[in-house]
Automatic annotation (TrEMBL):
Name listed for the protein in its UniProt record: Transmembrane channel-like protein
Any one cellular-component term (Gene Ontology): plasma membrane
Record's compositionally biased regions (Basic and acidic residues): 66-100
TM spans (from-to): 159-181, 252-271, 350-374, 394-417, 480-500, 585-604, 650-672
Mode of membrane association: Multi-pass membrane protein
Domain TMC: 471-581
Composition bias, Low complexity: 48-58
Gene Ontology molecular function: mechanosensitive monoatomic ion channel activity
Record gene name: TMC7
Record region (Disordered): 34-100, 704-726
Subcellular location: Membrane
Alphabetic keyword roster: Membrane, Transmembrane, Transmembrane helix
Listed InterPro entries: TMC (IPR038900), TMC_dom (IPR012496)
UniProt family annotation: Belongs to the TMC family.
């Protein structure tokens, strides 16, 4: 008996080898690996039988019995209505379970009944939660008509609504409610009173006397006038502490901690939602052949219920296959490039990127000039007429919107000459657009802060330009408010005055221009960038405009129905497909980038720039962050020492070391999982080769014995009229991966 034979036990319990299975490619490969690892030495415990040809031990008798027992236990725990059986079989199953429960003692019966009732209660809760989901019916309708790719955009929009709702509840509960309650309860408010200095002067901007109606509209759109000193903006919360009969509420500390809380909450929620897509991207196969198989055999979307969506999905799959083939062609072309061709391509890319950077710089400088001009016009109180005044107010928003509209068109045009792969072209263009949209907000804030901190020829007695900005936080909040309102106006205007007329022109105009222009595509990445841009504004503006999350909830609520109507009546799905699994991960990555950029101006405002001395809850502090050490210094000694220890360098170094160790462990674990996945893929390939080998042996045995069954006659005739079955099989299935795994018992009968 050979040491490395494949062993199976017969009925008598003796170990027998199978010559046929010893020839399997998987076994030969494993044998070669063991001989290589052993360096020709004898193995220890060589008399121990191996359980299968692949070495997995999957079909060992003990393993089979354990798996069957585990599967039987899981089936018994499932509710009867969920079992894949007929009604008669379910009745028999119920009777068997009742009879089995009668044999148990009272404690086990009570335990099983309790588990069953808790499981039913949990299922009812999950069903109730699903039924209460926002836009559940509308999202199912969109999924049925357009598939899961477009569904992911509307699900992402629903996530932003829920996120903003939680942020607003935090701000409302810890900042607004105490001010509202104290006015009707027996409490006292400690206001930050004016000390008579020039820094504490905050004049009211409310209009007095006879006011023209359109001025109220201007105030409503700009956040000035009657809206400036309301709950909407930072300047209204001019209270440091609120004293109730038994407790004192520190409003300044609550205002700062709520800001930190909603940023951290947003980070954790986004990371949690993006974890699933990130795990899929880690285990995503890099083999192009398996990518083709996945698209052909598992790429169909079974949620589609209309013929239009069926044709669109078919064209999307065709486009994906063409794109993959084009990528393979470009990769082969890249490998065959000469040094001269590489130099030419890199030169073209350098010039085009230099042009793109120059265009971005020009856009940013235009935003800077527009902001300076708008602020100058507001300071000089220039009044021409209603529309001109409104343009002055919204000039930075207009310039940002125009730049966000022009730059994607330019980037999509120049990327065609950079000779990238189609997939990289899409990603590179999107990242350029993300950079443009999010950086434009930073340029706007930089322009405002350059005006706020510039005192000109006068000395900055208050730490900021108090003559022009008596409450600069409110001014920044007004700019964020205007950006949010203008973004919503643009979305509505594009839907009504661009997409709808375009649909009418395409349907009823027979001219060549209308046919060339075509129907508007519902581009998922562009729409996602639009709402991520709005959400970034919300994160930044919530510190200066506490009611901005509530405004964003109303905005996203209307955007959902506007986009739904536009998708159904005005637009068609994009030609370039966007799969739901990849798109969801992309959405949250872009949203995470927006959150990271939103934290920067908030941190600078809290820790660096001098607080306004005439408004807000931080009048008595130089910066907003000073409220934290001031509050800590008034705590009891034990708590104060604990907080000082947590903020010390020793704790920071220890925490950093532990974090690094945890990170190294996670990286090592991820590497081990990758290696296991690689081994499993190799095992799948070997199992596919085993199947081919057994099929070839079966065919050779049939030819040698001369036995012809009714089902094999056509095979013999076809083999005579064409190349042999063996040759045809090898030519078509050389690289095929078989996912099925037949048992050795069935193989031994071959």
């Amino acid at each position: 008996m050979e040491i490395d034979s494949v062993f199976f036990t017969d009925h008598s319990g003796r170990i027998a080898s199978n010559i046929l299975l010893d020839q399997l490619p998987s076994y030969q490969s494993l044998l070669y690996q063991r001989r290589s690892s052993g360096n020709g030495s004898k193995r220890k415990n060589s008399s121990r039988p191996r359980l299968s040809s692949s070495g997995s031990g999957k079909w060992a008798p003990g393993t089979i019995s354990r798996q069957e027992e585990k599967q039987k236990t899981l089936m018994e725990q499932r509710p009867i209505r969920e079992l894949p059986k007929t009604m008669n079989e379910k009745r028999q199953e119920k009777a068997q379970r009742l009879k089995k429960n009668e044999d148990l003692d009272s404690w086990r019966q009570w335990s099983q009944n309790s588990r069953r009732h808790l499981r039913r209660l949990w299922e009812d809760y999950r069903e109730l939660r699903r039924s209460l989901q926002l836009w559940r019916g509308d999202i199912h309708q969109i999924e049925g008509r357009f598939g899961t790719g477009i569904l992911s955009y509307f699900s992402f929009l629903r996530f932003l609504v829920m996120l903003n709702l939680v942020i607003f509840l935090l701000i409302f509960g810890f900042v607004m409610v105490p001010l509202i309650v104290v006015r009707s309860a027996s409490g006292n408010i400690t206001y930050n009173q004016s000390d008579g200095s020039i820094c504490s002067n905050y004049p009211s901007s409310a209009r007095r006397g006879l006011v023209i109606f359109h001025q109220y509209i201007t105030d409503l759109l700009s956040g000035e006038g009657f809206l400036e000193q309301t709950y909407l903006f930072y300047g209204f919360y001019k209270a440091q502490k609120i004293s109730f009969p038994h407790v004192t509420y520190n409003l300044a500390l609550a205002y700062l901690l709520v800001t930190i809380a909603y940023l951290i909450l947003s980070l954790l929620w986004i990371v949690k939602r993006s974890a699933t897509g990130f795990k899929r991207s880690l285990v995503q196969d890099e083999d192009r052949f398996q990518s083709f198989c996945n698209k052909i055999f598992t790429g169909w979307d079974f949620c589609i219920a209309t013929e239009t969506a069926f044709k669109q999905k078919k064209s999307c799959l065709l486009y994906e296959l063409r794109t993959d083939l084009e990528e393979e062609r470009i990769k082969q072309k890249i490998q065959g490039r000469t040094r001269k061709e590489k130099l030419r391509i890199f030169s073209i890319r350098f010039l085009l990127n230099f042009f793109a950077v120059g265009f971005l710089v020009a856009c940013f400088y235009s935003i800077y000039l527009a902001t300076i001009f708008s602020q100058t016009a507001g300071r000089k109180n220039i009044k021409v007429n209603f529309f001109v005044d409104l343009i002055y107010e919204y000039l930075p928003s207009i310039v940002i919107t125009v730049a966000n509209f022009v730059t994607p068109l330019l980037f999509s045009f120049i990327v065609k000459f950079e000779d990238y792969t189609p997939a990289f072209e899409i990603r590179f263009t999107l990242m350029r657009c993300v950079f443009m949209r999010l950086t434009s907000i930073g340029v706007l804030l930089f322009s405002l802060w350059s005006q706020i901190t510039d005192c000109g020829e006068n000395s900055c007695e208050c730490g900021y330009n108090y003559k022009l900005y008596s409450c600069w936080e409110t001014r920044v909040g007004q700019e964020m408010y205007k950006l949010t309102i203008f973004d919503f106006i643009i979305i509505v205007a594009v839907t009504l005055f661009v997409e709808f007329p375009r649909k009418l022109m395409v349907n009823y105009c027979r001219c060549g221009l209308a046919k060339w222009w075509g129907q508007q595509e519902f581009s998922i990445p562009d729409n996602v960038l639009q709402i991520v841009y709005g959400q970034t504004i919300c994160w930044i503006g919530a510190y200066y405009c506490p009611m901005l999350p509530a405004i964003c909830i109303i905005k996203y609520f209307f955007i959902f129905y506007i986009k739904k109507v536009s998708l159904i009546h005005n637009c068609r799905p994009a030609t370039r497909p966007f799969r739901a699994s990849r798109s969801t991960f992309f959405f949250f990555v872009v949203l995470l980038i927006g959150l990271s950029l939103a934290c920067v101006p908030v941190i600078i405002s809290v820790a660096q720039i001098h607080c306004s001395q005439g408004c807000g809850p931080f009048v008595n502090y130089t910066t907003s962050w000073e409220v934290v050490p001031d509050t800590v210094s008034k705590l009891p000694d034990g708590v104060r020492n604990l907080l000082y220890a947590l903020s010390s360098e020793a704790f920071a170094v220890t925490f950093f070391v532990l974090t690094c160790l945890a990170m190294f462990y996670v990286i090592a674990l991820a590497g081990a999982h990758k290696r296991v996945i690689k081994q499993l893929r190799e095992q799948l390939v070997l199992e596919g080769q085993d199947k081919r080998f057994l099929m070839q042996k079966l065919y050779q045995a049939q030819r040698a014995s001369g036995v012809r069954s009714p089902g094999s006659k056509p095979l013999a005739r076809s083999s005579r009229s064409s190349p042999s079955y063996h040759t045809s099989f090898n030519s078509h299935f050389t690289e095929t991966v078989f996912l099925a795994h037949s048992s050795p018992n069935s193989s031994t009968h071959v």
